[in-house]
């Protein structure tokens, strides 16, 4: 097969492929490398006539990806089941699109879920899309523990960047509060290295407690630093109508909570939440069909690390976060100082403390001081950390958390959250979604503007 | 005349190449096992003591209550109970089980033993004894099944030798434990050959409340007031996470030295899972 000389195999992304180019598509797909190392990709436009025209006069086109709609359920203890929760999140996402949105326009869907409790382990995604007007859409469940929908979002972004789809849904769901306490405790901690960590009595409170104590030892941080994070996130989530725990917590109360896993108390731990979230992405050449006010998904970065804590050289940093953020910042052409707000994965307060270091908001080992100085407080600090209240206050329905973070950033950048909790002049926001104790991580950069 | 002392949480008396092991706990004038111990864990400790004394033990006759697979994985000592094809002539040691929580390990032809009575017994709290026994009995029933995170019997056995004996891999000057499959170039790593030292340094620790403990421990964690886990670093470099022994009141500090013994971890579907426990080092 002859290619135009100015095009490189591996940078082509024949999408929604017209029959005449089927062989070309298969050839390129067979090489399996639509994206370059920075995550940037190149592709032709969508329509058959445009694609044919470009083959005559080839030129490279970078496909940008926008968020055109996003919605979620309230997080908490839901009476709704999986189908009902997902329908509500999808309905809210569809309704948030400025122009009429027809779910039959969706080309692909990626839905994150740990399938907690095992009630619908197989074909979760197909069941949900069937009940939300997306019947027949190619769909799959994405599972990366608590980072499931962060990776669903990344997959959706890649589907558009590769040119295979124009309109893609990324979402997540988890139903956790309908289990007996015993069954629930069996499922908590399924995402560690079961053979080794579970036999040592560890679930995630224990794993993060080990990290916290070591951070205290190496960097002279203290439990009071974690209390500051808890108080801040409860303050941020207090006005969030979607939050699981809408209540302020005093420093004294948070400092004297019931000990769950020494040194972590109840106020260091996120709640067990039910919930669903849904984000709709579109390729740049179709965005205007849906909205004049898109939020651009400027980049996606991801990384992984050894699953078991004891297999890592250091337990006071998450290498997966460092890799993911470095990749995402680089592809978006930003640094940490450009970020106005960050939805950070604070399943435990120590996770936020470490993340502020790994994401570049604080120097290594200075996450405690960052929290102590209030540098993550909305409209007071250098960057607003967890404007939604984070997992600590907004809640943590495992598989729904990553795209739930994207819902918050979408609304913050469009200025559509409750006025009391709007981050002023927000231009750039990120989401940071971690699986387990840091084995997987996805970081996404969102902006009012496209990449330059 | 025999030497009496403590070894991995048990009272021992060693005389004429024979070893008496006894649980230190007394309940209603009877010697009873501690919360994480049984005849299997005590037999492992006994064999390790004899090996430590320079005895080369290749095979041993075990009693019915002792898990022969655990003995083999922990100590590399085979037994007719595990290996039916083992030539009887090679089995030169035996375990004799007393009526209470007492074992004697001796050479097979030994007939007469004379030990000093071990010292250092302590009374076990009545509630603790009754509650722990009831909990283990419930856990060991076949109806006690997993509903989520699950270590199958085959997975448990696959990693058993590394878990119970600290068998490690050696590759390009590095000691690797727990065992890994491939290196970063995609090449298969060698099988475990050497053993890590029996001592390590505490790098971090936590105590999970009963409410935060995994469900496998849900019956015993409330009785014990939670479960304690250490992250330790071995002198050879690898790190690991270990439960602490259930019968020692220990407040760890980063930098502490610990050693290891075999303990009961939990039971499911009628099978007891064994692993190592960290024991605060006396030295």
Summarize the amount of helix of chain A as a percent range: 25-40%
- The total count of helices of chain A amounts to 15
Oligomer: heterodimer
CA-based gyration radius of chain A = 21 Å
Order of helices and strands of chain A: HHEHEHEHEHHHHHEEEEHEHHEHHEE
Biggest sheet character of chain A: 10 strands, mixed
> Strand content of the residues of chain B, in percent?
25-35%
Q: For this structure, what is the CATH class of the largest domain in chain A? A: Alpha Beta
Residue runs with pLDDT of under 50 for 5 or more positions of chain B: none
Mean pLDDT figure of chain A? 88
Strands of the largest sheet of chain B, in order across it?
1-2-3-8-7-6
Number of domains of chain B: 3
Q: How many whole angstroms does the radius of gyration of chain B measure?
A: 19 Å
The portion of residues forming beta strands of chain A comes to: 15-25%
Q: CATH architecture of the largest domain in chain A, please?
A: 3-Layer(aba) Sandwich
Describe this structure in words.
The complex is a heterodimer of chains A (452) and B (283). Chain A has 452 residues and is an alpha/beta fold. Chain A folds into two domains: 1-62, no CATH class; 65-178 and 272-447, Peroxisomal Thiolase, Chain A, domain 1 (3-Layer(aba) Sandwich). Chain A contains 15 helices and twelve strands. In chain A, the strands form two sheets. Chain A has a ten-stranded mixed beta sheet, with helices on both faces. A two-stranded antiparallel sheet of chain A has the order 5-6. In chain A, strand 5 (259-261) and strand 6 form a beta hairpin. With 283 residues, chain B is α+β, with helices and mostly antiparallel strands. Chain B has three domains: 3-124, no CATH class; 141-158 and 197-283; 165-196, no CATH class. Chain B has helices spanning 39-52, 68-75, 126-139, 153-158, 160-165, 221-224; strands at residues 3-7, 10-15, 18-22, 25-27, 30-32, 60-61, 93-97, 102-107, 122-123, 167-171, 174-176, 194-195, 199-208, 227-234, 239-244, 257-268, 271-280. The longest helix of chain B is centred in the N-terminal third of the chain and has 14 residues, at 39-52. The mean pLDDT of chain B is 92. Classes of the chains: A alpha/beta (452), B alpha+beta (283). The interface between A and B is large, with 40 and 40 residues.
């Amino acid at each position: 097969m002859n290619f135009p000389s100015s095009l490189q195999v591996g940078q082509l992304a024949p999408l929604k492929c017209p029959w005449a180019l089927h062989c070309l598509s298969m050839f390129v797909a067979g090489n399996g490398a639509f994206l370059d190392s920075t995550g940037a990709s190149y592709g032709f436009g969508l329509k058959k006539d445009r694609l044919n025209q470009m083959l005559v006069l080839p030129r490279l086109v970078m496909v940008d990806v926008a968020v055109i709609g996003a919605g979620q359920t309230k997080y908490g203890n839901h009476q709704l089941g999986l189908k009902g929760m997902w329908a509500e999140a999808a309905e809210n996402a569809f309704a948030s699109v400025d122009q009429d949105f027809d779910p039959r326009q969706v080309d692909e869907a990626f839905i994150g879920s740990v399938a907690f409790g095992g009630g619908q382990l197989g074909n979760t995604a197909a069941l949900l899309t069937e009940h939300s007007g997306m019947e027949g859409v190619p769909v799959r469940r994405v599972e990366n523990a608590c980072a499931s929908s962060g990776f669903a979002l990344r997959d959706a972004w890649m589907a558009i960047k590769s040119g295979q789809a124009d309109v893609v849904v990324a979402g997540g769901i988890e139903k956790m509060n309908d289990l007996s306490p015993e069954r629930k405790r069996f499922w908590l901690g399924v995402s560690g290295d079961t053979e080794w960590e579970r036999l040592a009595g560890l679930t995630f409170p224990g794993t993060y407690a080990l990290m916290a104590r070591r951070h205290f030892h190496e960097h002279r941080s203290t439990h009071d630093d974690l209390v500051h994070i808890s108080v801040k996130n409860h303050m941020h989530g207090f006005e969030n109508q979607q939050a699981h725990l809408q209540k302020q917590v005093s420093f004294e109360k948070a400092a004297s909570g019931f000990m769950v896993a020494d040194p972590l108390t109840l106020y260091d731990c996120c709640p067990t939440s039910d919930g669903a979230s849904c984000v709709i992405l579109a390729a740049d050449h179709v965005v205007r069909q849906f909205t004049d006010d898109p939020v651009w998904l400027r980049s996606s970065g991801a990384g992984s690390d050894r699953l078991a804590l004891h297999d890592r050289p250091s337990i006071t940093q998450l290498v997966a976060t460092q890799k993911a953020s470095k990749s995402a910042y680089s592809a978006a052409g930003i640094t940490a100082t450009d970020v106005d707000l960050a939805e950070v994965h604070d399943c435990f307060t120590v996770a936020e403390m470490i993340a502020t270091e790994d994401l570049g908001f604080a120097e290594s080992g200075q996450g405690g001081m960052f929290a102590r100085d209030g540098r993550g407080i909305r409209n007071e600090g250098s960057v607003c950390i967890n404007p939604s209240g984070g997992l600590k206050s907004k809640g943590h329905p495992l598989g729904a958390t990553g795209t739930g973070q994207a819902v918050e950033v979408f609304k913050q950048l469009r200025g559509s959250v409750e006025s009391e909790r709007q981050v002023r002049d927000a231009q750039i926001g990120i989401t940071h979604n971690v699986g387990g104790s840091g084995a997987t991580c996805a970081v996404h950069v969102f902006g009012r503007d496209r990449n330059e | 005349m025999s030497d009496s002392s403590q070894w991995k949480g048990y009272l021992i008396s060693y005389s004429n190449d024979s070893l008496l092991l006894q649980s230190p706990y007394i309940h209603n004038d009877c010697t009873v096992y501690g919360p994480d111990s049984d005849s299997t864990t005590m037999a492992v400790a006994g064999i390790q003591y004899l090996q430590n004394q320079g005895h080369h033990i290749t095979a041993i006759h075990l009693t019915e209550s002792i898990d022969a697979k655990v003995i083999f994985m922990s100590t590399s000592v085979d037994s007719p109970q595990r290996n039916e094809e083992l030539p009887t002539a090679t089995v030169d040691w035996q375990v004799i089980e007393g009526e209470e929580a007492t074992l004697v390990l001796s050479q097979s032809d030994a007939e007469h033993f004379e030990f000093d009575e071990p010292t250092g017994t302590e009374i076990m709290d009545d509630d603790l004894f009754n509650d722990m026994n009831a909990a283990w009995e419930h856990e060991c029933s076949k109806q006690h099944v997993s509903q989520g995170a699950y270590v199958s019997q085959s997975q448990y056995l696959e990693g058993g030798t590394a878990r119970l004996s600290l068998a490690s891999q050696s590759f390009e000057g590095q000691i690797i434990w727990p065992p890994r499959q491939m290196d970063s170039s995609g090449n298969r790593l060698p099988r475990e050959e050497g053993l890590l030292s029996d001592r390590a340094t505490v790098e971090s620790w936590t105590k999970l409340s009963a409410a935060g403990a995994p469900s496998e421990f849900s019956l015993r964690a409330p009785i014990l007031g939670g479960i304690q886990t250490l992250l330790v670093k071995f002198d050879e470099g690898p790190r690991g996470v270990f439960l602490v022994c259930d019968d020692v009141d220990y407040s760890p500090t980063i930098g502490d030295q610990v050693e290891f013994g075999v303990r009961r971890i939990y039971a499911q579907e009628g099978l007891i899972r064994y692993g190592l426990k960290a024991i605060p080092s006396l030295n």
